[in-house]
Design brief:
Elements lengths: L1 H20 L3 H14 L1 H34 L15 H39 L9 H6 L2 H10 L2
Helix pairs in contact: 1-2, 1-4, 3-4
InterPro entries: Choline_transptr-like (IPR007603)
GO cellular component, one term: plasma membrane
Subcellular location: Cell membrane; Membrane
Length: 156
Amino acid sequence: MRVATFELTRLLFAVSQIAITGKGFFKASVLATGLIMNNILRIGKVNVIGDVILFLGKLCVSLFCALFAFLMLDTHKYKSAHNKISSPLVPVLVTWGLGYTVAKLFFAVVEMSIDTIILSFCQDAEEHQGTAQYAPPLLMETLDEQGELQRLTQGP
């Protein structure tokens, strides 16, 4: 599963490279693979942290949908004789599943945006000898590879 995710990420990076550089697919694919290999720590850090945050987001959205469904089914309207629901378990579980599916689709777009931003950052850093020129200061501070290496080698 992780290999398929890596291949999909590489494909998205290749498409982003086409948009950034205007080169053909195969040349952009080679450039994207080179960027991934040169910036594996940056991309890995962003992907791990991003995956955790996005999973928590999917979980929160789906649980909120399930809670909303339960609270809606707990009203007097669904407890009366004509519309009575004996157990809200199945509708709540279906709502949770649908909520998770919709959240997963939505957050896939967010994840693709994050991947495109990190690729643009890596491309900018590559073109300017390791220091991004056009990135926002917070992104530069967060993804500063030289500062990270200095902190690791010098210790606390």
